[in-house]
Amino acid sequence: MINALLFSGILLIISVLSSKLLYRFGIPTLLIFISLGMLLGSDGIGGIYFDNYEIAQQLSTLSLVFIMFYGGFGFNWKTGKPVAAQSILLATFGVAITAFLVGAFATIIFKTSLMEGMLLGAVISSTDAASVFSILRSKNLNLKGGLASMLEMESGSNDPMSYMLTIIVLAFMKSSGQISVIELLSKQIFFGLAVGVAVSIVAVFVFNRIKISIEGLYPIFTIGIVLTGYALSELLSGNGLLCVYVIGIIMGNTTLIHKRSLVHFFDGMSWLMQIILFFTLGLLVFPSQLPPVFFEGFLVSIFLVLIARPIAVFSVLSWFKVPIKQQLLVSWVGLRGAASIVFATYALTSNLPFANTIFNMVFFICLVSILIQGTLIPFIAKKLDLVEQSVSVYKTFNDYQDEVYTKLIEYKIENDHPWAWKTIMEANIPEDILVVIIKRKKTVITPKGFTEIQPGDIMVLSSNNFESLPS
């Protein structure tokens, strides 16, 4: 037990320090943590032998649940709304097109069965948000035309589609085609969305009305919400990953008590889940088994980057008259990452005879994608003149603040004021106005979300613009 704790502690310290060093060079965290797993695995210096696919899948899926939730929770809907339609279509039809093209390519070139090819296509069809934004953040690159928001929303929401296609193909193979694909697809989408919306609405309602005296319990409450939503969706044959992403978007873009502390908590938790996820996948792979799939993996990588992804992107974005330069960049920034490797473990746990080959090939494709595509993103963005110099890429996220409030006013609440007898959460105070303190007779109150505003109160407000205040 003590040895395990010591090993875990040292691993976390090394992961954090190495990510800080390599982050400056725009190297995605996935590559750092997976490399640590491979280095400490059975083929590396650590000699840790790990081939339990069931445990790896369960750990990876749990990690992915919280990564998906935070992807939605941290996404700024106000910034992403103008490109929401494009992002959603890329995350659905774009993924389906990519999966079909890669599947057809594998079937024709490698002489596999149609279902084997489609399984490879389904597994590798989604893009990785963490890798993309690790590069954009480290280089502080924002993209013109709302591309950063489009890529964030697409890559954050296309994992459920890839997961759904993987589950459908596996179910089709196990049942020898004796299943209703339309029924399975409908259940996945309907229950994933329905449970996500229902759970998040109830969660927001309860969240803002309970008064927990200990602020640290709010993140634990949120963890319970995420796990409940995922489990309910899966029990109803819905898409659990889609469910938690929807919960994240709704909760992240709704006024919540202690929201900023929640963002910071789940940011840290998301990093922890990434370390667990990537390290587990790094342990699971045997580097000595990768050379036999180098040729096939490289061919699929080239086809994916130069043909499948561009066809999918142009098929969707051309309808919106998106400039060619922007479509080219979106085509390039289609990095494959952790989710694809996780979905490949579903083939392993299904005991398919070719599952190990698919897993190794997907692992190799993801490494190639990150090393080649990822490294060249800043260069290509600059060459296409799509780097936005005046706006920070962090504006895509909910915890971004680009304004320092420099004006303070005292604002008195009269008897007929619309805020009277409402809590700060219920008063619908404009987002760009900060309540600093409340003066009530001879008492000074530190405002909280559940603090009730009473007639006669003098509120000290901070903002750069008070025009939205009720007159």
TrEMBL record:
InterPro entries: Cation/H_exchanger_TM, Na+/solute_symporter_sf, RCK_C, RCK_C_sf. One of its GO terms (molecular function) is antiporter activity. It is found in: Cell membrane. The chain crosses the membrane at residues 55-76, 88-111, 163-182, 188-207, 269-286, 298-317, 329-349, 361-381. GO terms for cellular component: plasma membrane. The keyword Acetylation does not apply. The keyword Membrane applies. Pfam families: Na_H_Exchanger, TrkA_C. Keywords: Antiport, Cell membrane, Ion transport, Membrane, Transmembrane, Transmembrane helix, Transport. Residues 395-471 form the RCK C-terminal domain. GO terms for biological process: potassium ion transport; proton transmembrane transport. It is a multi-pass membrane protein. SUPFAM superfamilies: TrkA C-terminal domain-like. This is Cell volume regulation protein A. It comes from Acetoanaerobium noterae.
